[in-house]
Amino acid sequence: MKKSKKNIMKLSVIGIFGSLAFVLMILSIPIVGPYELDFSEVPVMIGAFAYGPVVGFLIEAIKIFLDVTIGGASKTAYVGELANFIIGLSFVLPASFIYFRRKTRKQAIIGLAVGVLVMTITGALMNAFVLLPLYAELWFGDSLSSLLAVYNFNSLFKFIIFATVPFNLLKGISVSVIILLIYKRVSMIIKAKDSEDFEEIN
């Protein structure tokens, strides 16, 4: 019975946080080029910190599933959704894996820092070799130069260095700060409804 209650609580967290992440994804803010800043990784990371990387993966997957199914027509032929999923996981999974091994504030900070670094590198590589070329093929007839010109860049390298990398750093750091500020309170609510013990960030 006790294990059943834990599983029900975990499933509830996955569903609720996945839906919340979807809403936050919709409330995005245009930043640079095709990139829009959103804070959908906040509930994903909270769930992953509370229950582990697998739960983080499931929340991220629900967020993208909801966006694809009820979020309306994609402005990027679903390239943006693919990017959000892969790059989001590159942030959430390393951070939650490091924190979940030993739940302390120091581990949380280390995990988040590693997550930001991995996300920034993954975002740069994915955009350079997969996402931007795919986007260019879908919308500009395989003309990457035409895509770059739309955003006033004359080379892919400059686009990655001056748009992709700063954007992912900004998003990762912003989400990390929010996580460190609110996780303890949210985790206390989860802990009150779940008998499984885990240390708070303090």
Total count of strands = 2
The main pleated sheet reads as: 2 strands, antiparallel
Summed up, the domain count is: 1
End-to-end span in angstroms?
31 Å
What is the tally of helical segments?
7
Secondary-structure element series? HEEHHHHHH
Strand content bin: under 5%
User: What is the annotated CATH architecture?
Assistant: Orthogonal Bundle
Structural classification: mainly alpha
Radius of gyration: 18 Å
Range of helix content = over 70%
CATH classification, class level: Mainly Alpha
Shape, per Cα inertia axes: globular
Spatial strand arrangement across the major sheet: 1-2
**Mean residue pLDDT:** 85
Q: Regions with pLDDT < 50 over 5+ consecutive residues?
A: 195-200
